[in-house]
Amino acid sequence: MAEATASATGEELRVAVDGPVATITLDRPDALNALTVRLREGLLRAIRRADRDPAVRAIVLTGAGRAFCAGQDLKERLEPDAAALETELRERYNPLVLAMRESDTPIVGAINGVAAGAGASLALACDLLVIADGASIRLAFGRIALVPDSGATWLLPRLIGPSRAAAIALLDEPITASGAVDLGLAVKAVPVADVLAEAQALAARLATFAPRALALTKRALHHAQDATFTDTLEYEAVIQGIAGRTRDHQEGIAAFLEKRPPAFTGD
Length: 267
Ligand code: T3D
Description:
Elements: E1 2-5, E2 13-18, E3 21-26, H1 37-52, E4 58-63, E5 67-69, H2 74-77, H3 85-102, E6 107-111, E7 114-116, H4 118-125, E8 128-132, E9 136-138, H5 152-160, H6 162-171, E10 175-176, H7 177-182, E11 188-190, H8 195-206, H9 211-224, H10 229-244, H11 247-257
Parallel strand pairs: 3-4, 4-6, 5-7, 6-8, 7-9, 8-11
Antiparallel strand pairs: 1-2, 2-3, 9-10
Helix pairs in contact: 1-3, 3-4, 4-5, 5-6, 9-10
Bound molecules: ligand T3D.
Ligand T3D binds next to helix 2, helix 3 and strand 7.
């Protein structure tokens, strides 16, 4: 496994590439991986880099230590030169969650511990989640008199329905691991010792599919959230045309007829 420690460059995260799976680990365990400017910028770079790398077919995002991510670093927020909240959101948080949503490479969140504030938003922006028993997803904005951000007000109602999202956001209720599975937010809840391996196994499974078809499926699912049924039918027709012109589609048919597993190349 090739491991690049970005903390040497001040990014406060680690990236390890094992075959087709890149694992990005937020690495400020003493502060529950709270997001500093450096960490946010480093994470954005790491996601874009992994997404551009044709050898990487799935990304796992996790946290070092006992938390996934405690959201904005509140100590940094109190520094005199801290940017205004709206600037911080526009310039750093929004590009980050957009990069996750728009990543052609699917992202599996390994929620090893608490995901709070913008850390919850990062979890919600992943494509699939595996959550540790005992972990929780908390919007946590109410306690500091802020509003859920970094996409949480858009993502949560679409993922679990508006009334459940309202109860969670207005009452600042934590979502437990079993609750996350029941709500359909997480694929499964597992013991904390297994959460990373389970997420990596899921990522390795994603990596066996044709990357272009996976990316187009992700786009179609996102597109459909704001489209009419009629528009969605047309969008599906367009992207199916694109998928159908790939070599991987030919390979999929050949493998089916020859009764062997397909070997997708991304072409
Ligand atoms: O720029 C902008 O501000 C705009 C964007 C805003 C987006 C946001 O994310 S706002 C929301 C920010 N996050 C929070 O409000 C969560 C704050 N943390 C907590 O509520 C709790 O720490 C947790 C529920 C996440 C975990 O609780 P617990 O009891 O397991 O741990 P703890 O004892 O509170 O924290 C352990 C350490 O981590 C502690 O440090 P210490 O005392 O051992 O030196 C604590 O200060 C530190 N820590 C936890 N969260 C943060 C943090 N340090 C800085 N920033 C944090 N967000």
